[in-house]
C-alpha cells in the first residue's frame, strides 16, 4: 500500500515538473521572440538615422527623400553650424558690422589693445578713416555729413557715442544707421569725457581696416570733400594732436603735485581735445594703464582732462607720432571757457574759404596752406546755408 501511494505521488510530481518545464520553455521562447523583434525595430531606426545623417552631411540632394521627413531642408544642426561659421569667420572678426556688444570698458580696452604679430594681413585690406562723433543725441548737421560721405562707401567707418538713453535710429539709407556704440553718461570737464573718447577709439580699433581716427563733435563740419580729407590723412606720416607747455594758470597752474612721481610738472602739457590719430597712437591711448588712473584721481575742475590727458600722455610715451597740431579749427578769440558758436549769418563762402586756406603749417616736412580739415562750433541753424554752399565750394556730391 505504501509502495502504491509512493508510485502515484512520483507520477504526479513528474507530470507537474513537465508542466513547469514546458511553461518555462514557452516563456523563454516568448521573451526571445520579443527581444528579436525589438532588436529588429531598433536596428531599422538606427539604419535610417545613420543614412539620414550621411545624406545631410554629404549634401546628396539629388536623391529622392527616403523617409517621410524631407531632405530638401537642411538639418537643424547643420544650419546652426553654418551660422556659427559665418559669425566667427575672419571677416566678421576683423571688421565687425554690428557695433553693439555687452563688453565692459575694461574688457573693451583689453580686446582693442590686441595687435597681430604677423604684419601682413591675410585679406585684401583697404584702409579706412574712422569718424568718431561725440554727441548728446541726433546730429543736427547730419544732412551735410550725408553729402560728405556720399559715394565713398568702403573708405570710412562711423561711430556715435550718445547719451545712454538716446535710442533714435535714422533711416536704413543713412550712413548713421546702427552706428551707435554702447555709451555712458558724459560730463563736461570730468573723466567721463576721456572715457567716452577712449570708448570710441576702442570700438573703432576692433575693425582692423580702420587706419586713421578722427574725433568730432555734433557741431563740427568738414572743410573739404571726402577725397581730399581721406588722402590728406592716409598720406600723412604723423597724427594730428596738439600738445604744448602753457606756463599760465590755465596751463601749468592746473597741475596737481599728487600726480608725481608718475607725472611731473615738466611732463605737463595742454592741447585741443579734438584730435586725429593713426592706428599706432590710437593703440597707445586705449592701452594706457599707467597715466590714465593718475589723471582720473587727481585732475578735476579746474583741471580738465580733455585738455591735458592726451597731450601729456603723447609727450610721455610717443612724442614722435604727432605733428603737434590739430586739424579741427576752433575760434577761441572771444575768451572764456567755450569757443565761439557760429550762426546762420556767419556762414559765407569768404568765411569758410579763409578757414580753409588762410593758414600756414607743416605737412610731411613741407609747408602747406591746408592746415584744417574740420571746423567747429556751428549752430544747427547753419545747416541750410552750409548745404547750399557745400556742392560748389567744398566739391560735395549734391
UniProtKB/TrEMBL annotation:
Q: What is this protein called?
A: Core-2/I-branching beta-1,6-N-acetylglucosaminyltransferase family protein
| Chief subcellular location | membrane
Record the organism. Rehmannia glutinosa
Its placement in the membrane is given as: Single-pass type II membrane protein
Asked if the keyword DNA-binding belongs to this entry, the reply reads no
State the InterPro entries in the record: BC10-like (IPR044174), Glyco_trans_14 (IPR003406)
| Pfam family name, one | Branch
Keywords on record: Glycoprotein, Glycosyltransferase, Membrane, Transferase, Transmembrane, Transmembrane helix
Q: Point out the coiled-coil segments of this chain.
A: none
Q: What subcellular locations does the record give?
A: Membrane
Where are the membrane-spanning stretches? 21-42
Matches recorded under PANTHER family: CORE-2/I-BRANCHING BETA-1,6-N-ACETYLGLUCOSAMINYLTRANSFERASE FAMILY PROTEIN-RELATED (PTHR31042), CORE-2_I-BRANCHING BETA-1,6-N-ACETYLGLUCOSAMINYLTRANSFERASE FAMILY PROTEIN (PTHR31042:SF91)
Amino acid at each position: 500500500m505504501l509502495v502504491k501511494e509512493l508510485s502515484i505521488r512520483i507520477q504526479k510530481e513528474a507530470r507537474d515538473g513537465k508542466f513547469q518545464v514546458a511553461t518555462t520553455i514557452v516563456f523563454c521562447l516568448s521573451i526571445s521572440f520579443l527581444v528579436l523583434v525589438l532588436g529588429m525595430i531598433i536596428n531599422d531606426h538606427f539604419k535610417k538615422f545613420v543614412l539620414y545623417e550621411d545624406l545631410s552631411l554629404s549634401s546628396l540632394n539629388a536623391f529622392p527623400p527616403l523617409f517621410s521627413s524631407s531632405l530638401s531642408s537642411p538639418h537643424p544642426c547643420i544650419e546652426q553650424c553654418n551660422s556659427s561659421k559665418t559669425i566667427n569667420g575672419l571677416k566678421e572678426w576683423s571688421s565687425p558690422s554690428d557695433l553693439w556688444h555687452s563688453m565692459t570698458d575694461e574688457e573693451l580696452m583689453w580686446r582693442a589693445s590686441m595687435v597681430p604679430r604677423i604684419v601682413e594681413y591675410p585679406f585684401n585690406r583697404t584702409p579706412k578713416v574712422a569718424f568718431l562723433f561725440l554727441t548728446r543725441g541726433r546730429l543736427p548737421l547730419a544732412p551735410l555729413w550725408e553729402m560728405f560721405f556720399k559715394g565713398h562707401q568702403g573708405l570710412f567707418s562711423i561711430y556715435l557715442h550718445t547719451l545712454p538713453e538716446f535710442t533714435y535710429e535714422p533711416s536704413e539709407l543713412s550712413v548713421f544707421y546702427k552706428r551707435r556704440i554702447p555709451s555712458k553718461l558724459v560730463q563736461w570737464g570730468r573723466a567721463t569725457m576721456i572715457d567716452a573718447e577712449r570708448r570710441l577709439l576702442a570700438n573703432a580699433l576692433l575693425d582692423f581696416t580702420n587706419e586713421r581716427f578722427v574725433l568730432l563733435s555734433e557741431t563740427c563740419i568738414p572743410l573739404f570733400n571726402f577725397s581730399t580729407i581721406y588722402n590728406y590723412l592716409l598720406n600723412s606720416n604723423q597724427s594730428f594732436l596738439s600738445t604744448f607747455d602753457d606756463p599760465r594758470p590755465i596751463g601749468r597752474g592746473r597741475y596737481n603735485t599728487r600726480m608725481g612721481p608718475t607725472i611731473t610738472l615738466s611732463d605737463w602739457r595742454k592741447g585741443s581735445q579734438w584730435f586725429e590719430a593713426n592706428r599706432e597712437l590710437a593703440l597707445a591711448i586705449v592701452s594706457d594703464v599707467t597715466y590714465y588712473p593718475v589723471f582720473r584721481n587727481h585732475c578735476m575742475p579746474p583741471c580738465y582732462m580733455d585738455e591735458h590727458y592726451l597731450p601729456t600722455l603723447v609727450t610721455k610715451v610717443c612724442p614722435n607720432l604727432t605733428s603737434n597740431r590739430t586739424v579741427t579749427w576752433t575760434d577761441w578769440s572771444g575768451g572764456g571757457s567755450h569757443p565761439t558758436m557760429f550762426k546762420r549769418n556767419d556762414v559765407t563762402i569768404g568765411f569758410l574759404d579763409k578757414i580753409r586756406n588762410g593758414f600756414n603749417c607743416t605737412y610731411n616736412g613741407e609747408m602747406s596752406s591746408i592746415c584744417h580739415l574740420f571746423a567747429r562750433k556751428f549752430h544747427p541753424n547753419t545747416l541750410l546755408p552750409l548745404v547750399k554752399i557745400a556742392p560748389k565750394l567744398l566739391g560735395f556730391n549734391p
